[in-house]
Model the fold of this input.
Amino acid sequence: MSAVLTNPLRVGLRQERIIPAQCIVIFGASGDLTQRKLIPALFELYRQRRLPSEFAVLGCARRPWSDEEFRSRMADALGEEIAGHGHIWEGFAAGLFYEPADLSNPASILALGQRLEQIDRQRATRGNRTFYLSVSPAFYGSGTRALAAAGLLDDPDRTRVVIEKPFGTDYPSAQALNKVVQASAKEKQIFRIDHYLGKETVQNILVLRFANTIFEPIWNRNYIANVQITAAETVGVEERAGYYESSGALRDMVQNHLTQILALTAMEPPGRFDAEAIRNEKAKVLQAARLAHQGEPWKCCVRGQYGAGGNARSPIPGYREEPGVNPNTTTETYVAMKLFIDNWRWQGVPFYVRTGKRLPKRLSEVVLTFREAPVHLFDAAGGAPTPNQLILRIQPDEGADIRFEVKAPGSGMRSRPVDMAFSYDESFGEPSDEGYVRLLADAMLGDPTLFTRSDEVEAAWRLYTPLLELIEDAPWRLPVQPYEARTWGPAAADNLLAEDGLVWRRP
Amino acid sequence: MSTQLTLQAPTALPPSEVPNYLQTLWGEGLQGSDGATTFTLVVYEASWLQQHLIRTGRADGPLTGLLEPELIKAAKQAVPELGLPLSTAVMDQRLAWELGQQPGHHQAQDLRGQFVAAAISAHKPRRLITLAPTLDEGQTLETLVAAYCPLPDEGAGGTACGDVVVLRGGRGSLHQSLELIHPLIRDDLPCWVWWNSSLDEAPELLEALAPPSRRLVVDSSLGHPRRCIDLLVRCIKAGQAVNDLNWLRLRTWRESLAMVFDPPSRRTALEQVVQLDIDVEGDHPLKGLLLAAWIADRLGWHLVESYDIPGNGDGDGIGASFERTDGAAVQLRLMPVPVGSPKIHPGALVGLRLICAPQGRPPLCVILCSESGGCMRLEAGGMASMELAEDVVPLPNESEEVELARLLAGGHDSTNPLLASAASIAARLLPA
Done:
């Protein structure tokens, strides 16, 4: 986002929904996510006047902090964001409370219930509560059960639980976790968060497809030759080695974020814009998706792991040299795979999905490549006409491009490709809200449209089950292939497309 | 969405029995349920136009309080028949007044307060209190009460219920009913008061119904402009949460103008505005003034003076001089223009022209209009050398009830700061 003057006429025009009287209870309040994402997102909502005066945040963790200490720590965490907004911060901080709580201790949860009643009286929050489990995944099931046992989830209209990723580690564990949380709360109370769905550009996939008439008629196997979905990161494992070693790229990125993008790209139009209609269509398309070679997944998947890279002046360590990583680890930092969706719209159209760390660029995008013109009437500057492409840029430089052939200037009739570009930056010039701002607001409003339903989660895990089983049972069939840091992954990933006469887009 | 009737036929009760009846209803009839914990909505539903259209035989009943398409059609037909200018809007008080002078004794069932727009019932009001004044000033107070459960949307479920209370009678008897109304408004829930009538009407009743602690909804297109804007400013100064449907109907104009300047390449032009022209239908300038005031507020202009501009038969206009933050002058001209087919509310916007003169670049002229014809007057005169950005502003085809429902959904407990700023400037723009 380039620095531009704010459009003064735009200020205050967004017709946002106002969140009803509410107390949001954050478990894991002493953790990193709370300080980096959740409290800043809530403060942003407060600044946008989207939180009512009857609002409270109750931070919960094992540490014996006081309300004042919690407020002070959150002020420190927000740092510059509250500079110049002192009076706004004061108003927001007056609604911040802290209660030492242990999800595994029933007495502690009962005490929490009493504190919530006190806050209801103090802040007039009327029993509307959103419980955010920003805790170790090991506590998702037991934590939800503890809340239910204390009667804190009894009212399905006024209470809800937000559960962070990962929701399970494979299909059976996701099923088991679903059973536990669904025994404690109704599905409409359970909000499984995937912060990718909070991104403006991910939501724009829906608008682009279903608010325009020019795309949907050609959004199918008759016109689209293949689809590529890429999420590339330049960073390595950073501070997350402990978690990443047990998850890898497949669990960390593909099963959730990329699969959600796949679902939005491939789903059928919903009958109406509501949570269930959209989630029904997403679940259906995921249930129709499969690995290109179900029985022999090693033929359609590539795993990679970054090695050392960079140069003498700024060397980049390989994954196995990163702090906290097992020097002999076989955890993948890169995955590429080919999928099919067995339905009328997509039969035979390959979907190529890739993600990796330490790649040359940080970007996420969806590329729809259209079929070639049936007859080539013109010479192409590049030898052959470039297929039309629609490129949805999710981050950074958010926007969309359409690539098509035009007549190259000159006396002949040679064609060459050009891009017609839409850029959020150039068209709107305003930064979008952080994904958590949107998702927290939706959760408190009880709108689950951008949250993942149980059948979606299970379908996503089921889709990758052959791959997970192969990695577990016969890892030698799908070894991690090294690639140099800051390159586009192992050569085998290129071969995956080369077999189909294609190449990955080099963005 | 279609409107809904109360599920239970309303029970007519003597006014003094209403509180006890409601207590019994909730205590026994509804198994001790507390009902929806949402809000109370008090509506002053005069519907003079509808009442006179029905009385004079120009429209059929029942009288619902909703401005249905057939009523609008009948009102439009009545404008030329009564010799009013074709620019007269359907909700212009002069139309209702002229109809009031016509003979007629047709009657229809009065269902005001019992028809609930689905957009409103979707928000599950805990209590809907409707004050329904009758044409017969001497009519004694009638009270009707019914329990009410909104029909849930498909799959939406939900059992939260509320009740409706209708108070019907001459204005005098309604005034006397205030003692009955106040105890019916629960202190622990927000209360919205929707004055769905002219602001010239029954100011004491309005004041009594809507003390500063209640959220007030008015329509500043209905009533004398000075009275309307003064009321808005007074409420805002008193710290009352006030919402103006006339302001809300400006939404598409504000959005369309903001869209012109969304591309960063155009932003600097906003600092170089030299002229603002606004055309409005008829002689109610408030909507146009609120738009001008919003622009002035957002761009940091300082009002120097405002004055009348003598019109040429279509009514007088309003002019004003502003000073930009860099000291340069900006001229405003707000002019009434005749239209053959006016909108529903008086003073609807016809067009807007904003001329920016950035240094070293050709001037930028932004023209927005409500329909292609509305652009023509503003396109005339010296536009050829300017970069032109034109757009036709979409007209929101939404009823008052839908606009109100949007407010209820927002739960706004304070006045929109954009309206608060614009209202005080608009009050100063309107010549004394």
